[in-house]
Amino acid sequence: MAKKIDNIYKRYLEGRINRVDLDWLLHYFEYASDEELERLTSIASNGFEEDQTEQSFAPHIALVKQRLKESLNKPKNQPIRLRQRLQWWAAASILLVAGLATWFYLGQGPKTTDVTAPSAPTLYVKDKSGKEIAILPKTDSVWQIGDIAFSRIDSQTVKVIALGKNPSLQTIYTPNSDFRLVLEDGTKITMNAASTLKFQVPFDAVKRDVSLDGEGYFEVTHDARRPFTVTAGAAKVEVLGTVFNVRNYASDGHVTTSLLSGRIALSKSGTAERMILRPGETAVTDQKGIHIQHLTPKQAVAWTAGYFDYRDQSLRVILSDLSRWYGVDVDTITLPTDRSIYMKVRKNISLQEMLHLLNEASGLDFQLDNKKIILKTTYKNNN
């Protein structure tokens, strides 16, 4: 990990960093300790010749090194809040130069002719009789199925309204886009691409049950009389009111649950295993049971902020995500199993640009061939 960061930082100082590495470096500065920043500063000072840089970047790099040293050399007995501000200022200096580097990269990089963009947000609803409607991108419009209505609030938000008292099972799915639901109890659920949610409207008088295939970000309204339960594959999440994320894609082979606030009880179907998660914890439910995973909730929910955020992630998982998001197939047979990818990229770019960035991060050559992502040949090594 340290070696990879060092190499990325050196490429940054030399003015030849790509956008994927730039995003990863900025994220690293967000969480780096004083000691880690100081170590990187020493890299900038030792074994680096100024004439190796792009000439236009030289004065900015010097400014960054100066600001970093100034912030790190402050007395350690300063109040924590003040030291955090100094560290933030150092990172902000990096952001300023990084913005110039990104501009330079975009201006000099290859031009793309592919316009394969993410799909327009569309939600599909199917009732228990099999009747299906599409909730199209029309703000302030209302669709009705039986005793249930769906009101479009904005381009990616729909409110579910119960028109009668008779419970009705609804199946909601979105093929290639994010979508947010506001349920009749006020609970908000953001669904990721290729996700399906099943629930009863209105909820039962003593419980609120939903089932999820895919990925969902839950902001559950507190109701002590009616616990909220999410069934996702072999995992079962029980809450009263809290914020959490559940990822349950079949291609992953497990269910990942990340807790942002409150507390949840996580259990595995068919077993007596049960675990209480606390804020900041992520657990994986698989064939071996339930175990804590080293994944921050902030990373787990990056998709809700419009990002793909991968740290030490396999190509198979990344390409599966791209397949769902862009609505294309993937040839996973020839994928190397020893590649770990670090990249943070916005989800609103074209597929061709996304593949270009993935190629930069992986050192491989992925191409789009007749709506299918295929691996060509290895062409470089980033290490």
Plain-language structure description:
The chain has 4 domains: 2-108; 118-203, no CATH class; 207-301, Jelly Rolls; 306-375, Phage tail protein beta-alpha-beta fold. The chain is of the alpha+beta class. A hairpin with a 6-residue loop joins strand 9 (195-201) and strand 10 (208-219). The chain has 8 helices and 23 strands. Helix 2 (19-31) runs antiparallel to helix 5 (80-108). Mean pLDDT is 77; it is low at 47-61, 74-115 and 379-383. Helix content is 28%, strand content 33%. The protein has an 18-stranded mixed β-sheet that branches. The chain has a 3-stranded mixed β-sheet with strand order 20-23-22, with helices on one face. It has helices spanning 2-13, 19-31, 34-45, 58-72, 80-108, 297-300, 315-326, 351-362; strands at residues 123-127, 132-135, 142-145, 148-154, 157-162, 168-174, 179-182, 188-191, 195-201, 208-219, 228-232, 235-239, 243-248, 255-261, 264-268, 274-277, 282-286, 289-293, 307-314, 329-330, 340-346, 366-368, 372-375.
Largest sheet: 18 strands, mixed
Q: Regions with pLDDT < 50 over 5+ consecutive residues?
A: 47-61, 74-115, 379-383
Mean pLDDT: 77
Rounded radius of gyration (Å): 24 Å
Briefly note the structural class of the backbone: alpha+beta
Number of strands: 23
Determine the N-to-C terminus distance: 11 Å
